[in-house]
Amino acid sequence: MPIPIKLIRGPRGGLILMGEDFDEAKIIAKTHAKKLQLRFVEDSQDIETLAGAGTIGLELLNLPYTLDALLISLGNGALLGGIGRVIKELSPQTELIAVQAEGAPAMIESIRSQKLISHPSVNTISDGIAIRLPVKQSLLDLEHLIDDTLLVSDRTTLKAMKLLHQHLGIVSEPSAAVGIAAILDNKDRWRSKKVGAVICGSNLTPDQLKNWIMNP
Question: Which of 58, 125, 138, 189 has the greatest CB tally within 10 Å of its CB?
Fold first, then answer.
């Protein structure tokens, strides 16, 4: 069982698992919230989700050097939107790169085509960014922030996860390692440049940890 589910099911929380994927679960949750007259806080739709991510951008600006490029995983867009607004305002020369899994490309395809593109299903181990129904508001918010977009394979993402663990001792979930995967796929592009990648999330089951990271 994933760690977040265990934590939510602790003594202070309740959890109902429904839907076949993230987007279907979100639709069900919205309906449930409306029925109970509760506010539904949606990633990238509600400004609070971007503000929290923006603090990461402020931390990156405290580095003793300026980043030439920053790679950020793209799901619904709150992480990139929050960080991107801070970086583009205070370090506009830094190139912002959105990274998504090849098996869940809806957001990047929408950005590239400048129209909403959805998919009936996703196929990637990067479940934290496995979005098939983009949020329209997020696409509008990201329009002037992203300098480039990249898609990475699950194979390269697994390689990135293992490198993070072997060299830095970091246990990363797939969604958090796609930025490193993009660097591995484009080594010559940023050679001799200062490049950053946001690694956010370590939600793995014991079996995933064993099979994806610990096995040679």
Answer: 138
Q: Which residues have CB under 8 Å from 46's CB, separation 6+?
A: none
Enter the pTM of the model: 0.87
Pairwise CA distance, residues 150 & 100, whole Å: 6
Domain boundaries along the sequence of the chain: 3-35, 47-214
Per DSSP, 128 falls in state G
pLDDT tens, 101-115?
A: 999 999 999 999 999
Amino acid at 46: D
Q: Where are the alpha helices (DSSP H) in the chain?
A: 3-8, 22-35, 47-60, 78-90, 106-113, 136-142, 154-168, 174-185, 206-208
Are 213 and 165 spatial neighbours (Cβ–Cβ below 8 Å)? yes
Q: Kindly report, residue by residue over 75-124, the tens digit of the pLDDT.
A: 999 999 999 999 999 999 999 999 999 999 999 999 999 999 999 999 99
Which candidate, 21, 44, 19, 40, places its Cα nearest to that of 134? 44
